[in-house]
Each structure stands twice: as structure tokens, then as C-alpha cells.
Amino acid sequence: MGLSVFGDAHYMKEALKEAEKAMEEGEVPVGAVVVCKNKIISRAHNQTERLTDPTAHAEMLAITAAFNNLGGKYLEDCTVYVTLEPCTMCAGAMFWARPGKIIYAARDEKRGYEKWGAGVLHPKTKVEYGIMESESSALLNAFFSALRDKRIH
User: Which amino acids are annotated catalytic?
Assistant: First the structure.
């Protein structure tokens, strides 16, 4: 994929910026960016509330925009950076999109695809996690804490 002056942390920070936008809009704070040949070709954040669409997850929106940018349906030369472990829906979409790599920050113990075992992603897709995990988790925890406080009062 070539050398880049930017590392994984730089791109994950960009995904976190998207997650912060989601939080400002009252959405679950998840953000994603797709990088191809060391360039961000798409970015997105959760918009399920705004679009009244339960499929409008950050990953889904980001990979759709990446397809449009590249003019193709495969992301083999791309890396998807996402602030939270993809759910099974997003992992299934990424199975078909075939990104070269997926890097996510925080695990999702309740709804993450890994809960359902191997075979959800394309066998050629590499996966890494943990980059900026504490920052992503802090954002999610703040969001859900504020949501709980709102329900209590």
C-alpha cells in the first residue's frame, strides 16, 4: 500500500472527529474513515436518528461513499478505520466490500461482530484493534452516561 507520513493513529483521530460530530448530533458516537493509497477517500459518522434508518451506521455510510469515490465495489487497497468494533451488519457489508484491512479502536462486547465468531469478514481482510481505544471508549461512555442521566431526570 505504500509508505505514508501518517500512521494509524492519525487516521483513527480523523475517525474520532467523526464520532464527535455524531455525539453533537445526538447520535451514538461512532465514526469511520476509509483510506486508500494514504489518502482519506471517505468519512462518516452514525446517522441512524437523523436519517431514521437503522442501517445508517458510520461504516456503512463510509464504505458507500468510498465505492462512489473509487467507482468500484471492492475496497481491497483500502483500510477502514472505525472507532467501535463493527456490528454483524457492518461486518457483513465489509465482507462483500473486501477492504484490505479494518482497524477499530474499541471492542463492542454486546453487539460486535467478533461475538458471533470467525467467518464474518472476508478471509483476506486483516483486522487490528486497540488504537485509541481509551479515547473512543471515553466518548461512548460519556454519551451513554448523559443518556442515562436524561432518562433519570
Answer: 59
